[in-house]
Amino acid sequence: MQYETVIGLEVHVHLKTKTKAFCGCSTEFGQDPNSQTCPVCLGLPGSLPVLNKRALELTIKTALALDCKVNNYLKFDRKNYYYPDLPKNYQISQYDMPISSNGFIILSSGKKIKIRRAHLEEDAGKLIHETDSSLVDYNRSGMPLLEIVSEPDINSPDEAYEYLTNLKLILQYIGVSDCDMEKGTLRCDANISLRKMGDKELGVKTELKNMNSFKAVKEALQFEINRQAEALNNGERIIQDTRLWDGQKEITVSMRSKEEAHDYRYFPEPDLVPFSIEQNFIDQIKKEIPELPQARASRFIKDLQLSEYDANVIIQDKALADYFEECAKLYKNAKNISNWLLGAVSSEINSRKASIQELKLKPEDLVGLIEEVDKATVSNLAAKEILTLMIDSGKSASAIISEKGLAQVSDEGELGRLADEAIKENSKSVEDYKAGKENALMFLVGQVMKKSKGKANPKVVGEILRGKLK
Amino acid sequence: MNLHELTAHQIIKDKVNPRELRKALEERISAVDKRVKAVLRLCPDKGEVGKGVLSGVPIAIKDNICIKDHLTTCASHILDGFKPPYDATVITKLRNAGANLLCSTNMDEFAFGSSTENSFYGPTHNPWDLERVPGGSSGGSAAAVASDQATMALGSDTGGSIRQPASFCGVVGLKPTYGRVSRYGLIAFGSSLDQIGPLTKDVEDSALLLNVIAGYDPNDSTSVDTPVPDYTKSLIKDVKGLKIGIPKEYFIEGIDKEVKDAVWAAINLLKKLGADYKEISLPHTEYAVPTYYIVATSEASSNLARFDGVQYGLRSKAAKKEISDLIDMYFASREAGFGKEAKRRIMLGTYALSSGYYEAYYLRALKVRTLIKRDFDEAFKSVDCIITPTSPTGAFKIGEKTEDPLSMYLSDIFTISTNLAGIPGISIPCGFMKNNLPVGLQILAKPFAEEALFKVAYTYEQNTEWHKQKPKL
User: How far is it, in rounded angstroms, from Cα B429 to Cα B263?
Assistant: First the structure.
């Protein structure tokens, strides 16, 4: 039987505010347990929440970047459930009037994945389980969270993966979140169901939790597709439940069924008076939104003649794309810059496990190096070594070339002498060349290069050798 | 006059020695509280005398207002040992005004009640008749002021919890406009209804205390950022041309005839002093009690969810075999920690918010609440204030209504609408019944028109002697 997969994703991201959503406590990660708490985020009796304006601004900024409609009426609700990491045993969230709705994200295929809603809420604390007890750390309690819910428009694990990648990139571009799944600043739950190809009605869905990477989301979805398809093929019914992804065993395990689901008893949060958001406030935030990744890629292709592939790779890293633009201001051939960035510079980034900002490589210095290659002062090969030295020392290409005497030798007298030596020492290759084997000449060029310690201009060497062996 | 009998304004005027004053009140508490049982615990006296408008004035605090490092329990077992690490905003303001924090007062557990019988520590007794209740839920504060165990007191009012005990104990009780006084540090019952307010021996003290506690608080989003006038400037003996509204829905059957007569006598006195009155209608009055018990219990069920034994307060010490997991711990702690009325209201509120019932109960109650508010808006177009009895009866006997929650709920029938509408209301003494129980007169005004309340209340008070009567203890 052929099935169509229907997936909806629910993403939670921590907003990058200095203080928590409803109190003045710091949001810094990795501090001593319970060191960043106050009566409000501890939910102590008598304490009251006060909305962090910055959290609202970042929420609206995100909504605008996701092409959502921003509702100009802000209302919070209480979501009631008992859990020891939730100090009030209710979460301040938004229920029937989310701050934003009806947005979308476009995939590379051109397909639009609609976003149903994005709303602001507070995070809970964290439980640390020990052998015979559990401890609670409330540092995370009250951190501002944005919940972004997609429509069930996603039809494959690959689409889910791309949606998440694009979403993350947009959030990073607008600077609202680090989106670091390891630190828990981005979390993703997935709803998935199968239906017979052509069916209009949705099948019974399951909700997947506990995926700690985009890859895990993809794997969990794939597992669930197989599991549900097998069940349906066997004539079984899918049971609506919430399932946990076990990354080690690579399976999903049922956590609770629909019958055990919470009744959250939502009602308007009486401690936060609803208020209208002025259009002016929204317009001001709109101005803060930078060029988004997809628009940037299009511009790189159109204005800077990058290939679609290169453009899409470069924009994946906002800092790298910013760097690229800096270079492109100084140097005409953008394609050349992109080759360097995606080649030698990326190798350096990877081997040093650093970001482009952390490398001691100013855009003008990289451009300087490329220009030395263009002028044939150095060979491409030598240039790569120079790049390493530049990053090590923070010096410019020309400084290193003159310091180390790395300038390419094009002097025909000097090169002629080395060519003679090479001809003398490699009679076999000379014969081969004369017998018509063009490769043999390349070998001789290589020998001359070696003798010059890489400084010889290979093009000139080739010409000299050809002349001598005529 | 004995020091413990003085009002705050007399203390300030006569520059009474704060040390002697504190001592006098502590002696008074030792002498009478064995019988009244209004005081739960004394606040430590550090011997310092703060400067400010209430310098040295001893004040009693209802046990649901957080005092830093001082046991604050809402008269509930579940808050055993809870010492807040912070002061409520009103406490900070009192300290800044130089007031002397005297004691915590008894109350119905979490302010759930109208008689102060629902206290984990046992009931408070009415100083006018120790067989009777002082009203509630701020019964401890009202009884303490009435029996001269405190110069003044703070209470909280969610559906009448300041005004009704003020009426039963023959003192002045004010519920300010919702948003006039910060709720930060008031342990919430019904967040959209709760207000902190003064319980005092006379109207002047009420204005003095409101001056100190009123004002916008950045820690309370529901407090309103409007200027605080000097309320003592409204203490003017003048009601000429004042238009009083008498809501016909409040003079119903079931209201005690002596109460009714006392209230009408008061209205006629005001008329004699130059005011005018007319009958008005607040047509949605009959829905106030059911609306209130849905809104208030719904909010309470959520507000009280945090008392779970995890972080503070009571954690059940039941045997380990009985508590095998977290859920058992929750159940055991809440079972042991909450009293009967608290459990009843948590269940009511939980039910009203449950999926499938929300629209029929909570949402509908919110709509009716709007209608009740509109009734008042409409009324205040043609009158300056509204006068009603504070409660349909005088103080009832201890135990008389504990088995009949509905009849208990009805003792707040005249005060509840005020909280639903968010308007201010004051209860002042307006006479005594044959059995020597005080009767309270309720005056209501527009939002943020506390000045109008003070003016009417002061004029009436200065033309009568009721507030000067003392219970014999």
Answer: 10
Are A366 and A340 a contacting pair, CB within 8 Å?
yes
Residue B274 tokens read as 């130059």
Query: Under CATH, what is the fold of the domain B3-239+425-468?
Result: Amidase signature (AS) enzymes (3.90.1300)
Contact A80 B353 (CB under 8 A): yes
Dig out the tokens for B88 from the structure: 């409520």
Nearest to B452 by CA among B461, B463, B443: B443
Cα B248 vs. chain centroid, distance in angstroms?
25
Is pTM beyond 0.80 here? yes
* A82 in contact with B, Cβ within 8 Å: yes
Interval B115-156: pLDDT, tens: 999 999 999 999 999 999 999 999 999 999 999 999 999 999
User: Within chain A, how many helices (H) and strands (E) appear?
Assistant: 16, 16
Unique residue bearing structure tokens 């120790």: B130
CA distance linking residue A26 with residue A59, whole number of Å: 18
Record the tokens describing residue B192, joined without a space.
């959209």
User: How is chain A split into domains, by residue range?
Assistant: 3-285, 291-404, 412-468
Q: Could you tell me which chain A residue has the CA closest to the CA of B87? A: A46
Instruction: Report the complex ipTM.
Output: 0.96
Q: How far apart are CA B42 and CA B65, in angstroms?
A: 14
Q: Does domain A412-468 have CATH number 1.10.10.410?
A: yes
How do A77-80 and A267-268 pair as beta strands? antiparallel
CB contact under 8 A, A87 and B306: yes
> Is residue A39 less than 8 Å (CB to CB) from chain B?
yes
What are the tens digits of pLDDT across the range B165-182? Answer: 999 999 999 999 999 999
Domain boundaries, chain B: 3-239+425-468
Question: How far B108 CA lies from chain A's nearest CA (Å)?
Answer: 17
